[in-house]
Each structure stands twice: as structure tokens, then as C-alpha cells.
């Protein structure tokens, strides 16, 4: 069985979990306190970052590389389109969420409110929280624009781009940092994607010291 070293609210870990679950790959989840830089974990990934996946006799790091490997070795059901321009758009949007969205929103909200407490780094920086709360509005508006022109974020079919976005938003939703009333089309998209069987284990996550809002696991929120 595959083994994933992860942190429950990490969007990068959640993206890998969604890919594994969508392709029905059984995985053992092992919570990793990566910030303690345990010697065994550093041997698994000297970068001291999660996720780390043990699969096919290999240890894999970096969520984008992991997801591409899963896609190449388990192509059914596909999370990448067939043509090069379509794949380019998926990769662009995965990078958008894992880089730009993460830098402007996730690191300012989730990391300030949750990660600092977990790692003992102190209290949230209110200026960062305000910055993240402002930036998420822009990103939801951009998603709304995309979804006004497409069935899914990158095109007519659900792809890894949708999982990347949902991984970040579900982590933020756990701490009530998403205004779902800002865009009906984004709310409908999220309801559709979180109703998939692949999302079940994520919606069951419980993080010590943090209680999710009542709508978190509600498919008709």
C-alpha cells in the first residue's frame, strides 16, 4: 500500500490525496510534524517539506511532481487533457494556485492562523491576515470569470487544476476564511467537486485545537 507523509490542512498534501483517491489508489496516511525536522523524515526528504509519498518502491517529494507521476503511471481516470495547449492551461492554473494563491492568500490566512500555533511560532500577524482576506476576493473573482466561460476551471472536464484550487480552498474553508456568497458560480463549482468520493477523507479531517464550521462537510452548503 502507498504511504503519504502529510499534514491534514496542507493544500499540497490535499492535492496529492485527491489525485490518489480519484484514481482509487489506497494510501496509508501518516501525519508528519515536518517542522521538527526529525532525522528519519529528513532522510525521506532533505527539504523537510510535505507531502512525501512512498509508491512503487520509491519516495517522492514535491506535490506537482508527485501528481504528474501519478497521472503518467495511472492515467485512468485522467486528470490531464489530451492536447498540449489544454495541458498547458492545466499546468498554468496549478501553478497559479500553488504559487500565486498560496503566496497571497494561503500563507497569509492558514499559515498565520493555524501553522504558527501548531509549530509554536507565536501569534498571527494581523497585517498578513488583512492582506490575505483582501487578496482572496480577487482570486474568487478570477475563478468566477473562468467558470463563466468554462464548465471547470481549465476547460470542459475536471482536471488537476480543479483539485489544486479545491485543496487550497478546502483548507481555508476549515477555518471559515472563504466567503462563498461572493460568487454563486464558484460556490456551485466547489459543491460539485467536494461531492466527489475522492473528497470524503478530506472532509473527515479533524485538526486538534481547530473546529471546522458546520457547513464544512455539508454537500449542500
Task: Furnish the topology, listing elements before pairings.
Layout (H helix, E strand, L loop, with lengths): L1 E5 L4 H12 L4 E5 L7 H6 L7 E4 L2 E4 L1 H11 L10 H36 L6 H24 L10 H15 L9 H11 L5 H4 L18
Parallel strand pairs: 1-2
Antiparallel strand pairs: 1-3, 3-4
Helix pairs in contact: 1-3, 1-6, 4-5, 4-6, 5-7
Keywords: Transferase
Organism: Tritonibacter scottomollicae (Epibacterium scottomollicae)
Pfam family, one: GST_N_3
Report strand %. Answer: 5-15%
What CATH architecture of the largest domain do you see?
Up-down Bundle
Q: Order of strands side by side in the largest beta sheet?
A: 2-1-3-4
CATH topology of the largest domain: Glutathione S-transferase Yfyf (Class Pi), Chain A, domain 2
| Major sheet description | 4 strands, mixed
How many helix segments?
8
Overall number of structural domains: 2
Uncertain runs: none
Q: Percent range for helical residues? A: 40-55%
| Rounded radius of gyration (Å) | 17 Å
The oligomerization state is: single chain
Keywords, please?
4 strands, alpha+beta, Glutathione-S-Trfase_C_sf, Glutathione-S-Trfase_C-like, globular, Glutathione_S-Trfase, Glutathione S-transferase Yfyf (Class Pi), Chain A, domain 2, 221 residues, 8 helices, glutathione transferase activity, four-stranded mixed β-sheet, Glutaredoxin
Molecular structure report:
By secondary structure, the protein is an alpha+beta fold. The protein folds into 2 domains: 3-73, Glutaredoxin; 84-204, Glutathione S-transferase Yfyf (Class Pi), Chain A, domain 2. The protein is 54% helix and 8% strand. It is built from 8 helices and 4 strands; from the N terminus they run E-H-E-H-E-E-H-H-H-H-H-H. The protein has helices at 11-22, 39-44, 63-73, 84-119, 126-149, 160-174, 184-194, 200-203; strands at 2-6, 27-31, 52-55, 58-61. The chain has a 4-stranded mixed β-sheet, with helices on one face. A hairpin with a 2-residue loop joins strand 3 (52-55) and strand 4. It is globular. It starts with a strand and ends in an 18-residue tail after the last helix. The model has no long low-confidence stretch (mean pLDDT 96). InterPro entries: Glutathione-S-Trfase_C-like, Glutathione-S-Trfase_C_sf, Glutathione_S-Trfase, Glutathione_S-Trfase_N, Thioredoxin-like_sf. Residues 1-78 form the GST N-terminal domain. It comes from Tritonibacter scottomollicae. Residues 83-216 form the GST C-terminal domain. It holds the Pfam family GST_N_3.
Amino acid at each position: 500500500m502507498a504511504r503519504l507523509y502529510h499534514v491534514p490542512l496542507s493544500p499540497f498534501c490535499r492535492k496529492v490525496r485527491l489525485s490518489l483517491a480519484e484514481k482509487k489508489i489506497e494510501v496509508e496516511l501518516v501525519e508528519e510534524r515536518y517542522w521538527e525536522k526529525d532525522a528519519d523524515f529528513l532522510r525521506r526528504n532533505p527539504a523537510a517539506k510535505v507531502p512525501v509519498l512512498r509508491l512503487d518502491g520509491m519516495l517522492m517529494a514535491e506535490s506537482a511532481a508527485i501528481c504528474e507521476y501519478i497521472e503518467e503511471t495511472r492515467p485512468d481516470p485522467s486528470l490531464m487533457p489530451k492536447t498540449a495547449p489544454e495541458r498547458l492551461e492545466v499546468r498554468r492554473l496549478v501553478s497559479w494556485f500553488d504559487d500565486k494563491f498560496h503566496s497571497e492568500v494561503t500563507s497569509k490566512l492558514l499559515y498565520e492562523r493555524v501553522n504558527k500555533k501548531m509549530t509554536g511560532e507565536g501569534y498571527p500577524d494581523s497585517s498578513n491576515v488583512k492582506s490575505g482576506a483582501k487578496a482572496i476576493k480577487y482570486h474568487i473573482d478570477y475563478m468566477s470569470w473562468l467558470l463563466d466561460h468554462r464548465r471547470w476551471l481549465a476547460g470542459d472536464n475536471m482536471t488537476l487544476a480543479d483539485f489544486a484550487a479545491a485543496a487550497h480552498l478546502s483548507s481555508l474553508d476549515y477555518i471559515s476564511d472563504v466567503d462563498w456568497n461572493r460568487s454563486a458560480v464558484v460556490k456551485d463549482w466547489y459543491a460539485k467537486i467536494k461531492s466527489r468520493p475522492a473528497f470524503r477523507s478530506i472532509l473527515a479531517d479533524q485538526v486538534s485545537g481547530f473546529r471546522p464550521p458546520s457547513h464544512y462537510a455539508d454537500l449542500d452548503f
